[in-house]
Write a structure and sequence with these properties.
single chain, 220 residues, alpha/beta, D-Maltodextrin-Binding Protein, domain 2, six-stranded mixed sheet, five-stranded mixed sheet, 8 helices, 11 strands, 32% helix, binds adenosine-5'-triphosphate, binds 1-O-pyrophosphono-5-O-phosphono-alpha-D-ribofuranose, ATP phosphoribosyltransferase, nucleotide-binding, glycosyltransferase, ATP binding, ATP phosphoribosyltransferase activity
Length: 220
């Protein structure tokens, strides 16, 4: 990682990008015009700062680029960072956007007749197998996870499993699919994270960006 190379900030596509755009603006980070052009096939963009470039990647991949030092900073949901849980990732700033929760849900009829205290082994469809296994192992419950990448709410109705672990914001997706939330695993919001090696080797510019983005988030 050479000090002459621009720093790379990894941003996720999708809903977080919309929420963080005003924060970046307040922090004085201006991506080149093409960044906002949804039909552009480019993935890496200059900014108004010659020492900062932005890459646009899938939500979970922000953590991968960051962990391996291919990006020096990244913005991601705390759900993604918990699932990835990599020692090279340090996430010091809560951006106070992208609020939702990671929760266990199941069909309403099942919730009406069972007691979560009696769980000993569960089969769960989720995009978050590591967080799910850790959460249940902490209280002696074995969670057998089936990895899905979306539309998890279909799984109980089609007999894949009886429970899911997914993000819940308003609860309308669960409700529309006959499911109810039975247990919260974690509160979720978006975070600014840094690669620990980058923080050591280029502390000045990395800390400057962390401070600027952190202050811009507080000013919201
Ligand atoms: N309903 C929601 N309310 C608030 N924040 C959410 C909600 N769903 C997801 N998020 C946050 O936004 C992040 C990205 O979610 P989004 O749905 O945009 O991406 P995705 O489609 O799951 O990602 P990928 O590009 O990997 O398929 C999540 O990791 C979470 O932190
Ligand atoms: O409680 P709610 O307000 O209904 O929000 C929860 C939904 O939002 C997310 O899905 P998203 O819309 O990102 O679609 P996805 O399934 O493609 O991830 C999440 O996976 C839930 O399905």
């Amino acid at each position: 990682m050479s000090a002459n190379q621009p720093l790379i900030l990894a941003l996720p596509k999708g809903r977080i990008l919309k929420a963080i755009t005003p924060i970046l603006e307040r922090a004085g980070i201006e991506p080149e015009d093409d960044f906002f052009n949804e039909s552009s096939r480019r993935l890496q963009f200059h900014t108004n700062d010659a020492d900062l470039e932005i890459i646009r990647v899938r939500s979970f991949d922000t953590a991968t680029f960051l962990a391996f030092g291919a990006a020096h900073l990244a913005i991601a949901g705390s759900d993604v960072l918990m699932e990835f849980d990599h020692p090279e990732i340090y996430a010091p700033v809560d951006l106070n956007v992208g609020h939702c929760r990671l929760a266990v849900a199941e069909p309403a009829e099942l919730a009406a007749k069972e007691n979560p205290q009696h769980w000993s082994h569960l089969r769960i469809a989720t995009k978050y197998p590591n967080v799910t296994r850790r959460h249940f192992a902490a209280r002696g419950v074995q969670a057998e996870c089936i990895k899905l990448n979306g539309a998890l709410e279909l799984a109980p109705g089609l007999g894949l499993c009886r429970r899911i672990v997914d993000l819940v914001e308003t609860g309308s997706t669960l409700k529309a699919n006959g499911l109810v939330e039975v247990e919260q695993i974690a509160a979720v919001s978006s975070r600014l994270a840094v690669n620990r090696a980058a923080l050591k080797t280029r502390p000045g510019p990395v800390k400057d960006l962390v401070d600027r983005i952190g202050e811009a988030a507080l000013a919201a």
